Amino acid sequence: MRAIITGGAGFLGSHLCDLFIEKGWEVVCLDNLVTGADSNISHLLSHPRFSFVKQDVSQYIDIAGSVDAVLHFASPASPPDYLKFPIQTLKVGALGTHNALGLAKAKGSKFLLASTSECYGDPEVSPQPETYWGRVNPIGPRGVYDEAKRFAEAITMAYHRYHNLDTRIVRIFNTYGPRMRLNDGRALPNFLYQALVGEPITVFGDGKQTRSFCYVSDLISGIYKLLESNEHGPVNIGNPEEISILEFANRVRALVGASVPIVFRPLPQDDPKQRCPDISKARRLLNWEPKVGLEQGLRITYDFFREQVRSTSRMA
Ligand code: UDP
Description:
With 316 residues, the protein is of the alpha/beta class. It has helices at 11-22, 79-84, 86-107, 143-163, 187-197, 216-228, 245-256, 280-286, 294-315; strands spanning 2-6, 26-31, 50-54, 69-72, 110-116, 167-172, 175-176, 201-204, 210-212, 214-215, 234-237, 242-244, 262-265.
């Protein structure tokens, strides 16, 4: 079995590469390394079933040989990243998805789209079920990501309906774990980094907005189960344990044992007030639910970030 993983050198993509290699697949990882990092896949480079191609998938994708699954994970995904790369984000969500679908169609392979809870925008219902259509501001700064992913879902369903392509759509909620970039600007890396180096923890707004954090191994196992299923509609994968960002900052600070203050900064535009996955569909169809609690996941991630901070300061 042979999988093509776009964005395979990113945080989630690289964990996916690991899982597919572990399951005995041959894996071709495509990444232009805009937000991915070769260090995420360096341990795989000498593996006989793994290969890496440095490529922007917004350009035509040319792969020789048979393919059994295309998993499209390429995209900047943290808010500061997609604000920094708005055009690339739109292109990889639109043109990149089109190319990845075209590849799957040409090879007669399965296709799995990495979609997002951002499709729900700033939601009026919580938790969010897959049947909720969302509340997205198309022209706001986050629109570049949200609308690209909504387009990606629409074109994936069109390929399914019109070309009979065997497609899957996973709506990924906030995920964390080793290999997140120290400086990717998301809440968890920011808070851990700040607590580790003794800087104030920056909470945006009043910190009452909520998120639900899923540990990476849970997410990846859910995605594999989805690929093995026959479900073509979108499926939420995330951890329904909801927490306010202020409480989250306090937990991180306590874990690190840092006495740094929490400071409040302006809330970015269109920042969702609440986000929590309704995972009944994943429970029912995939017999999946997360196993790693926040306490346990944070501890593992903390160890990873502590090592990162140490090696960065050794290099400085
Ligand atoms: N956030 C924060 N301080 C930071 C970074 C983020 O308070 O230093 C907030 C952000 O405004 C949002 C939440 O934490 O309400 C989660 O942000 P993140 O960037 O992790 O991802 P999002 O869920 O918004 O895509």
